Amino acid sequence: MASARDVLESVIKRMSVFKNKEVLYPEYIPQHLPHREAQLKQLAEIFRVMLTAPGSVSMRAMLVGGVGVGKTVTARVFGSTMRSLARERGIDLRYIHVNCHRDRTLYEVVAEIVRQIGAPIPLRGLSPREMMLALLNYIERNDIYALVTLDEFDYFVSAAGNDAVYFIVRLYDEYPEAKKRMSFIFIARDLSALSQLDPTTESYILKHVIKFDPYTSDELFDILVQRRNAAFYEGTVDDEVLRYIADMEGVDRGGEGNARAAIEALLLAGEAADYEGAQKVTIEHVRKALSHVQPDIVRVSEILPYLQLHELLILKAAIRVLRRKGEAYARIGEIEEEYRSICQMYGEEPRKHTQVYEYVNNLKKMGVIEARVSGKGFRGRSTLVSIMAPLDALEKQVDSLIEKRRTANRKRLL
Ligand SMILES: Nc1ncnc2c1ncn2[C@@H]1O[C@H](COP(=O)(O)OP(=O)(O)O)[C@@H](O)[C@H]1O
Ligand SMILES: [Mg+2]
Q1: Which sites bind ATP (predicted)?
Q2: What b-and-e string marks burial along 177-210, b requiring 16 or more CB atoms within 10 Å of the CB?
């Protein structure tokens, strides 16, 4: 007779077409980027000097293109590859990725760079300029180089303004004697945001522009093949299913050329198949999935990987309260209560009330939740929180990120 373990395992295995679903999540970084070789090559031309003559000159490049065309992932893959090439040459090159949708003031951006480099510089009480000066001293003393990406740079330009952009872009004009240890990649959807800058600053940024065009159907097909092979059990997703998605999204077929939407469709189609207990993902599953894809979840899931553990725990609390109540809004007090019990469940120390409030503000600022102050009720005024994306899909992503953060924290403590 089969052991209980075998029985369970055979059922569990059969219950999913996925062998590694994480491969389809937005934060997954593939090793190979089909159809972005040209952009990687241009980046290499611009930044090769960081390896051949480190410290001699500070470079800047601007990556431009619409949503889901691989700007962020290309910068990340380039950065991590540069880091390992540098290491082989005995150079300590750090890759820093800042999302300006999240950190959009000069202070926040500089503080984030300081944090990612791990420089022991107090973040309170210093102006951004003082912090930057301390940082430049720190990397000089410790012989560190940094390639800094300011992603969603459009937000920084409109929120921080000309002087802040000028400061970043012409950093070494202020310290002409300093070794040029920091270089920058800027990423934006289009260049129109830059027109509000003064012409000198603008021309400085636009020295090296790398364009990312929307993907064609054939290109998306290649990207999907790579993900399918890594994410699904063999034989569960036929090429024709991928072809169908690629044709829906390909720019040459009237789509947006958005790889994120294509990968998301594949994920949702797989989930639809699992939900029905089907052995294979069919075009009908894709159709069902696409009718459910809402732009909100795509936008929100892009920002989730940048959230801290306790922001994620609060978001999870909000999701649970909203689902339980079945209403559009939940009071922040209820969410905080739920957050405390979730913390207890995970064995995490809950943050203080003021900190929780700050996290909620952050989540609002990033557009993950909506928050507004209620009219005066019998309990007085209260902040009301609402979430626009589908709760179940969102919670799944939040859960997987919480696990990831907790594992990372545990490793750090060991
Ligand atoms: N050439 C590619 N090869 C593999 N995956 C890609 C490629 N281009 C984009 N992706 C994937 O598509 C999604 C969107 O890419 P992303 O870099 O976030 O787009 P953007 O920053 O331009 O909005 C990510 O999951 C990314 O890994
Ligand atoms: Mg991006």
Answers
A1: 69-73, 215, 227
A2: ebbbbbbbbbbbbeeeebeebeeebbebbeebeb
Binding residues for ATP: 69-73, 215, 227
Which of 270, 284, 288, 261 is closest to 233 using CA atoms? Answer: 270
What are the Cα distances from residue 102, in Å, to 111, 144, 362?
Answer: 12, 26, 8
Q: Is 105 exposed, middle or buried (0-12, 13-18, 19+ CB in 10 A)?
A: middle
The domains of the chain are located at 37-212, 215-293, 300-413
Question: What's the CA gap between 283 and 272, in Å, rounded?
Answer: 11
Q: What span, in angstroms and rounded, lies between the C-alpha atoms of 81 and 88?
A: 11
For residue 26 and ligand 1, the question of a CB distance below 6 A is answered with: yes
pLDDT value of residue 224: 98
Instruction: Give Cα separations from 354 to 29, 166, 185, 362 (angstroms).
Output: 35, 34, 35, 12
Centroid of ligand 1 to alpha carbon of 73 (angstroms): 5
Architecture of domain 300-413: Orthogonal Bundle (1.10)
pTM for the full model? 0.75
Q: What class does CATH assign to 37-212?
A: alpha beta
Q: Do residues 96 and 151 touch, judged by C-beta distance below 8 A?
A: no
Residue 71 in contact with ligand 1 by CB distance below 6 A: yes
Class of domain 215-293: mainly alpha
CA 346 – ligand 2 centroid, Å: 31
Q: What percent of the chain has pLDDT above 70? A: 94
What is the best residue among 27, 67, 73 to mutate for testing ligand 1's pocket, by most ligand atoms within 8 Å of CB? 73
Distance set, CA 397 to CA 56, 184, 287, 338, 403 (Å) = 43, 30, 22, 19, 10
- Separation of CA 258 and ligand 2 centre (Å): 11
